[in-house]
Write a structure and sequence with these properties.
single chain; mainly alpha
Length: 371
C-alpha cells in the first residue's frame, strides 16, 4: 500500500514539475529583496511602479542586493538555443545583472535577447530560452523536499508499523494526512477516495511547500506565478474529465426534467461550467498569492516614497510600515495553509461531482461549496 502510494506520488509530482517548466511564465512576485529596493530607491528618478514590476518578473538569478556597484546574487545556469547561433550554456553572472553582453546575448528586463556587434537587439536571431530560472529552481527544491520528507515518513511506517506512536515529521504530517483523508477524500469521494488520495495529498503538500519557500527572504514566490497555478488547474481538469462517468455527461448534454427550450440555454452554460471549474482553481490561488506579496512590497516602498518627501516623514513612517509588513507576513503563513487546503478541497469536490452516480452515492450529498 505504501509502495503504491509513493509510486503514484512520484509520478504526479514529476508530472507537475515537467508541465510547470514547459510553460513560459513571467508573472512572479518577489517582495523580500529589501536591500535591492533600497539601492534602487536611492537612485534618481525612483519609480515605485517600476520597482514593483521588476520584482514581479521572473529572473535568471536570486538577486539580494548590490554593494559598490556589484550585485550580491546567486547566479543560475543560462541555456539559450538559437537556430542561427546554436546552443549556448553559461552562468547568469556573465550578464552582470543586465549590464554586460556575453556570447552575443544580453539581458533586458529579465528577457534574454540576441544582440549584434554594436550591442543593439538583433530581431533576425530567434532565441529559445531554456534556462533554469529561479522559479524552476525553487520548484525543483520544493519537489526534492516533498519527496524526501514523505518517503522518509513512509519508510518509518514500514519499519515501525502503524501501531507505534508517531514522532518527528511523522508526528507532524500524520494529523494533516488524516485530516485530508477524512474531511476531503472520504467526504467528497466516498468509497473511491483511496484512488485519488495520492493526487490530493501531492497537490496539498506541493502548494504548501512551494508557498512557504516563497516566504523565505530572497526566494521566489512560485505560487504567485500564473504558469504554476495554470499547470495545477490543467492537471485537475484532466483528472476530472477522465474520471467523469456517464451520469455526469448526461446531465451536461441532456439535463433530465428540463424542457427542450430551456435546454438550448442550459446546455451551453453547463459546458461552460466544465471550464470555469479549473479556471476558478487557477485564478483563486494566483490572485491570493500575488495580493499578499504585493501588499508587502507596497508597504516597504511606502518608506521610500515618504522619504522622497522628507527624511523625517520616511523615518516616522518606517515603524508603521515594518509593523504592518510583519503582520501581513504572518497572515501569509496562514494563507499558505488555507490556499493549499482550498485548492485540494475544490479539486476533490469537482472530482466527486464527476464520479457521482444517479443516486448521488459518491459519499457526500448535502455539502454546498461556494466557488
Amino acid at each position: 500500500m505504501a509502495l503504491n502510494f509513493l509510486k503514484s506520488l512520484l509520478v504526479v509530482v514529476f508530472s507537475l514539475f515537467l508541465c510547470s517548466i514547459s510553460i513560459e511564465g513571467k508573472t512572479q512576485v518577489e517582495e523580500h529583496i529589501v536591500a535591492d529596493t533600497v539601492h534602487e530607491a536611492k537612485g534618481e528618478g525612483f519609480n515605485p511602479g517600476v520597482v514593483i514590476m521588476e520584482h514581479i518578473m521572473d529572473n535568471h538569478d536570486f538577486h539580494f542586493a548590490e554593494w559598490n556597484g556589484h550585485a550580491i546574487a546567486i547566479p543560475l545556469p543560462v541555456i539559450v538555443y538559437s537556430p542561427q547561433r546554436g546552443l549556448s550554456v553559461f552562468m547568469s553572472s556573465k550578464f552582470e545583472h543586465g549590464h554586460a553582453i556575453y556570447d552575443g546575448y544580453k539581458l533586458e528586463e529579465g528577457t534574454i535577447v540576441a544582440v549584434n556587434e554594436s550591442g543593439e537587439p538583433d530581431d533576425s536571431v530567434k532565441v529559445y530560452d531554456l534556462s533554469l530560472t529561479r522559479n524552476v529552481v525553487q520548484m525543483m527544491l520544493g519537489l526534492i523536499i516533498l519527496v524526501v520528507v514523505l518517503i522518509n515518513v513512509a519508510k518509518k511506517y514500514t519499519r515501525e508499523g502503524a501501531g507505534k506512536a508517531p514522532s518527528g515529521f511523522q508526528n507532524a504530517l500524520e494529523p494533516v494526512i488524516t485530516f485530508i483523508r477524512d474531511e476531503v477524500g472520504k467526504s467528497y469521494l466516498g468509497d473511491k477516495y483511496e484512488k485519488y488520495m495520492p493526487l490530493l495529498l501531492t497537490i496539498f503538500f506541493f502548494i504548501l511547500i512551494s508557498t512557504l519557500l516563497g516566504l523565505i527572504p530572497g526566494s521566489a514566490n512560485v505560487t504567485g506565478n500564473i504558469a504554476f497555478t495554470f499547470t495545477l488547474g490543467i492537471i485537475s481538469f484532466v483528472v476530472i474529465m477522465f474520471s467523469a462517468n456517464k451520469h455526469y455527461w448526461s446531465h451536461i448534454f441532456n439535463p433530465p426534467g428540463v424542457p427542450f427550450g430551456v435546454k438550448l440555454i442550459l446546455v451551453p452554460v453547463e459546458i461552460l461550467g466544465i471550464f470555469t471549474k479549473p479556471f476558478a482553481l487557477i485564478v483563486r490561488l494566483f490572485a491570493n498569492m500575488v495580493a499578499g506579496h504585493m501588499i508587502i512590497t507596497c508597504l516597504i516602498l511606502m518608506i521610500f516614497i515618504f522619504t522622497k518627501l522628507s527624511v523625517g516623514a520616511g523615518l516616522g513612517f518606517a515603524p508603521i510600515s515594518l509593523g504592518f509588513t510583519i503582520f501581513i507576513y504572518f497572515i501569509e503563513i496562514l494563507v499558505a495553509f488555507i490556499q493549499a487546503f482550498i485548492f485540494t478541497n475544490l479539486t476533490a469536490v469537482f472530482i466527486g461531482q464527476a464520479i457521482e452516480d444517479a443516486h448521488g452515492e459518491h459519499g457526500h450529498e448535502d455539502d454546498a461549496v461556494i466557488i
